[in-house]
């Protein structure tokens, strides 16, 4: 009998919303599932996880798991998966899930379906779709080993809402991690922001190299971001130039987002950027070059100098929101 | 210090929107796209070189070996990394369709056993398959400590450990790995100050980005050794654990419109898109 083990993502004792997409995968696959929570002092996260319709929430609460280090986490995930006879192990393809999933697959002798955008059950077998070539081709694939490991793209699996269940909680032991001795965790320097997280925001406003400085991001772009109550994104060029933190990069190798509204300001629309945002519901582009490739994916394109258009748009959005 | 870098030949990533799908969706066709070094692997080569240099000069005794799995033509791409400064290349030939990340990682583990490097550096992802798995599978297979998504690497003076800054969601994680170890690199690793080795003076600044090969190096690279052998010679199980059954192009977005000014944009967002 097939059953799924969902790996929850917990950071600093808090359940991360990424977890909801992996839970949604389990629901889409229409198979029974349990959730594994790992960390130190994770009582609150475990309690929260009981409401999603899992058979059980398995809790590995151990000092060894206080910070995510692959060498420490992988043995426990693999042992829990083996002992429980799970046939599918799923995690969201965040930086945590991307790092963890291939390693768990090795331990389970399992094939990996990485960063999938869809799952379908065909004659009892799970069939996956996954974007490749920066989203310019979609592959259909299956895993042929008895056990499979899957990572799911957060933007393609809308967050699961609590279903009101009350799963049982089972404590599980952390497994010894011999390789962990050669990896020392030093620190996690967190970038804190008051704004909604990029991957969860309904609106994302993103800026490019054209903003020319960190100061302009603050004085020109941020008022627009805040007028929308949006998450802020950026192109790689803006991040590389140090205008904004790394964490804001949208694209093939940054965050993949699919908000209701994506506003690209002074971003040319390189393939690698489009890969991270072209599934947004509505796309607006502001760029002074009428030939910029971003206009090929924009629903509404405005050819204008951003230093003039953005303040105007900011005022208009504030006005429109005040009128509502 | 011996560093092994893995390098994949990929169809020109800047033109990935020109890939096609064969009739019936049997495979992805990249005809007409120039085969290039996977950009992250170019960054991996740059990282390795910065670790074995004292500023502009090489540290005697250190070496950088580049390994690739793929068609014979990948020699050209290995040669590009030799022109950047790597010392030698290894090519294990097979056609691309018979490879996947899991197999590459297991084959690479065999290469590691034979080459005995102190450090293996890979790209965080090959930008054709976008799988992001080889470094993780390799580390787990070898039982070596590892750090994926490296945006900074500092090699200790005694060359026994590396301190790696990992770029993760929400910030940066710092880990200290005891060598031998596996690292996969992210974009920021080619920042001018991202890689340090306690030999190159702190005042020395690299240019941002991977280096261009100057003409003398391109000429010199022609004489550097590239050993070629069939993949099968590694004695690795070549069965794959996943099967691709078809490919398609994504649905095109419907063409948008240009608005004449901010007022029209706001109006459209309110009425057509209901996004305000
Ligand atoms: C391996 C690899 C991975 C990559 N991954 C990513 C990724 O994940 N995300 C990503 O974004 N990029 C990524 N890139 C980089 C990508 O190829 C582009 O270089 C980058 O997206 C360009 O950023 P940009 O649009 O801000 O800058 P540019 O390409 O320089 O474009 C600036 C744009 O602003 C416009 N402009 C200038 N001034 C004004 C003004 N006053 N008003 C209005 N418009 C103006 C210009 O017309 C131009 O279109 C990657 C590249 C590589 C090699
Ligand atoms: N065929 C290959 N030959 C050599 N290295 C490879 C190959 N495929 C993947 N790699 C390495 O593994 C990294 C991650 O690839 P992937 O996990 O496939 O996204 C790449 O950046 C390369 O360093």
The gist of it:
The complex is a heterodimer of chains A (324) and B (276). With 324 residues, chain A is of the alpha/beta class. Chain A has helices at residues 18-29, 43-49, 70-83, 95-108, 214-228, 236-240, 271-274, 306-323; strands spanning 4-7, 10-11, 14-15, 33-39, 56-61, 88-92, 111-116, 118-122, 125-132, 137-143, 148-152, 168-171, 183-190, 203-207, 231-234, 261-265, 282-287, 300-303.
Structural class of chain B: alpha/beta
Quaternary state reads: heterodimer
Q: Quick one: CATH class of the largest domain in chain A? A: Alpha Beta
Q: Which second-level CATH architecture of the largest domain in chain A applies?
A: 3-Layer(aba) Sandwich
Distance between the termini of chain A: 52 Å
Mean pLDDT over the residues of chain A? 96
H/E series of chain A? EEEHEHEHEHEEEEEEEEHEHEHEEH
**CATH topology annotation of the largest domain in chain A:** Rossmann fold
Biggest interface between protein chains, with counts per chain? Answer: A-B, 91 and 83 residues
Order of strands across the widest beta sheet of chain A?
7-11-6-1-4-5-12
- Strand runs of chain A, count: 18
Q: How many strand segments of chain B? A: 18
Shape of chain A: elongated
Question: Which structural category fits the helices and strands of chain A?
Answer: alpha/beta
- Rg over CA atoms of chain B: 21 Å
Unreliable stretches of chain B, pLDDT < 50, 5 or more residues?
none
Structure notes:
The complex is a heterodimer of chains A (324) and B (276). Chain A has 2 domains: 179 residues, Rossmann fold (3-Layer(aba) Sandwich), CATH 3.40.50.620; 125 residues, Rossmann fold, CATH 3.40.50.1220. Chain A has 8 helices and 18 strands. In chain A, the strands form 4 sheets. Chain A has a 7-stranded parallel β-sheet with strand order 7-11-6-1-4-5-12, with helices on both faces. Chain A has a 5-stranded parallel β-sheet with strand order 15-14-16-17-18. A 3-stranded antiparallel β-sheet of chain A has the order 8-9-10. In chain A, helix 3 crosses helix 4. With 276 residues, chain B is of the alpha/beta class. Chain B is globular and about 70 Å long. The chains are: A alpha/beta (324), B alpha/beta (276). Chains A and B meet through helix 3, helix 4, strand 7, strand 9 and strand 10 of A and helix 4, strand 11, strand 12, strand 13 and strand 17 of B. Strand 18 of chain A pairs parallel with strand 18 of chain B, so a sheet runs across the interface. Flavin-adenine dinucleotide (FAD) sits at the interface of chains A and B.
């Amino acid at each position: 009998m097939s059953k799924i083990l969902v790996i929850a993502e917990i950071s600093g004792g808090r359940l991360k919303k990424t977890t909801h997409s992996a839970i949604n995968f389990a629901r889409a696959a229409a198979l029974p599932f349990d959730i594994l929570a790992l960390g130190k002092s994770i009582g609150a996260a475990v309690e929260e996880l009981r409401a999603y319709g899992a058979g059980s929430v398995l809790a590995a609460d151990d000092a060894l798991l206080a910070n995510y280090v692959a060498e420490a986490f992988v043995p426990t995930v693999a042992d829990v998966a083996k002992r429980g006879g799970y046939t599918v192990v799923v995690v969201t393809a965040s930086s945590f899930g991307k790092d963890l999933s291939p390693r768990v697959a090795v331990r389970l002798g399992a094939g990996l379906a990485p960063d999938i955008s869809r799952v379908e059950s065909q004659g009892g077998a799970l069939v996956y779709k996954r974007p490749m070539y920066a989203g310019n081709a979609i592959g259909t694939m299956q895993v042929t080993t008895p056990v499979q490991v899957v990572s799911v793209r957060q933007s393609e699996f809308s967050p699961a809402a609590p279903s009101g269940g009350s799963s049982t909680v089972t404590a599980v032991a952390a497994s010894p991690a011999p390789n962990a001795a050669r990896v020392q965790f030093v620190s996690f320097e967190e970038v804190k922001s008051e704004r909604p997280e990029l991957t969860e925001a309904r609106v994302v406003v993103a800026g490019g190299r054209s903003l020319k400085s960190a100061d302009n991001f603050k004085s020109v772009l941020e008022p627009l971001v805040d007028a929308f109550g949006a998450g802020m994104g950026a192109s790689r060029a803006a991040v590389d130039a140090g205008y904004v933190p790394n964490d804001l990069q949208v694209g093939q190798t940054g965050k993949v987002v699919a908000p209701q509204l994506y506003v690209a300001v002074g971003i040319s629309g390189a393939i690698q950027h489009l890969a991270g945002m072209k599934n947004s519901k509505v796309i607006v582009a502001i760029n002074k070059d009428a030939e910029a490739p971003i206009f090929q994916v924009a629903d509404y394109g405005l050819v204008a100098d951003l230093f003039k258009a953005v303040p105007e748009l900011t005022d208009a959005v504030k006005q429109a929101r005040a009128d509502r | 210090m011996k560093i092994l870098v893995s390098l994949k030949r990929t169809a020109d990533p800047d033109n990935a929107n020109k890939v096609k799908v064969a009739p019936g969706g049997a495979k992805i066709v990249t005809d007409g796209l120039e085969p290039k070094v996977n950009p992250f692997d170019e960054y991996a080569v740059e990282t390795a070189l910065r670790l074995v240099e004292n500023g502009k000069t090489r540290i005697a005794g250190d070496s950088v070996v580049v390994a690739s799995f793929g068609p014979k033509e990948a020699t050209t791409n290995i040669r590009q990394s030799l022109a950047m400064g790597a010392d030698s290349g290894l090519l294990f030939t097979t056609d691309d369709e018979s490879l996947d990340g899991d197999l590459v990682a297991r084959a690479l583990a065999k290469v590691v056993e034979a080459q005995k490097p102190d450090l293996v550096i890979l790209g965080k992802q090959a930008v054709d398959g976008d799988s992001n798995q080889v470094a993780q599978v390799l580390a787990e297979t070898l039982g070596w400590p590892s750090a994926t998504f490296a945006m900074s690497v500092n090699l200790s003076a005694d060359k026994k450990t590396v301190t790696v800054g990992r770029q993760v969601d929400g910030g940066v994680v710092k880990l200290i790995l005891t060598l031998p170890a596996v690292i996969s690199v992210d974009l920021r690793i080619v920042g001018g100050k991202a890689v340090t080795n306690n030999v190159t003076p702190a005042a020395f600044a690299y240019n941002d980005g991977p280096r261009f090969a100057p003409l003398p190096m391109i000429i010199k690279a022609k004489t550097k050794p590239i050993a070629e052998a069939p993949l099968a010679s590694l004695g690795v199980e070549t069965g794959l654990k996943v099967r691709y059954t078809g490919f398609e192009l994504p649905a095109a977005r419907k063409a948008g419109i240009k608005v004449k000014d901010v007022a029209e944009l706001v109006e459209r967002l309110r009425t057509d898109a209901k996004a305000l």
